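User: Need the bound-state model for NAP:
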Amino acid sequence: MRFTNKTILILGGTAGIGEAAARLFRAEGGKVALTGRSQAALDALAGEGFTALKADMGDIAATRDAIAKAAAALGGRIDVLFVNAGVGGFGTLADMTEEFWDQVHGVNLKGACFAMQSALPHLNDGGAIVITGSIGSMIAVPGNGVYAAAKAGLRAAARVIGAELLPRKIRVNMVSPGPTDTEIFKRDASPEEIAAFREMLSGVVPIGRMGTSEEVARAALFLASDEASFINGIDLFVDGGSIELK
Ligand SMILES: NC(=O)c1ccc[n+]([C@@H]2O[C@H](COP(=O)([O-])OP(=O)(O)OC[C@H]3O[C@@H](n4cnc5c(N)ncnc54)[C@H](OP(=O)(O)O)[C@@H]3O)[C@@H](O)[C@H]2O)c1
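Assistant: Bound-state model below.
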């Protein structure tokens, strides 16, 4: 029960890693608010008692508004901010477009940074920020350059933000998943494509399978908890050894 009497806001908490984290934080006593874009998912989670607010993290004003509303619903303060929302997509240097670049960076980098700025007045001193990065920022997967650049930029920004928030004793850490079995790689894909992608991804992970949302979420909870009280500015890879064992 590491989060008893703690308040948690998850940006991108309606599916995958964020939803798993929402359930785990609550199971350990936390009071959880979350955001996302899918109204159906938000409604379902609101029905389970979560404070669920619609906001696209690429829309800075809407996210600022949602963060303020979440803070109010959580009693006026946020102990843990989990900046998890992210969008994927592939495009090589030859075929990338400005629209694709702006869409990915608008959410994964710009949106994430302005969301953290918006949360500053609501964050409790002594609290924690956890940001979802990706091993994609570290490895050279052809076609992944736009996404990789956004996540690498986010890691660089996270380290600076961590230094800036030292006077408030707010720790800032990143959790970087490897291939994780969530909807992110299944959208717009046929069942055959999903099966082939899963097999391919499992083959590149030394442990021999994709991770689960819960496995990544558990690392986020650790970084957000007092167990990680002397850990600041790290990027924790939860990737079945994808980087470490290569
Ligand atoms: N799965 C992997 O293999 C993998 C690997 C490395 C890194 N990651 C990162 O892990 C994070 C979570 O991804 P996931 O795999 O759990 O994917 P997911 O199942 O697609 O979940 C993504 C979550 O983020 C939300 N979201 C996406 N775009 C948003 C936006 N513009 N504004 C607000 N919320 C938004 C989604 O909610 P709505 O759909 O309701 O908007 C959903 O709750 C992302 O940052 C992703 O880049 C994933």
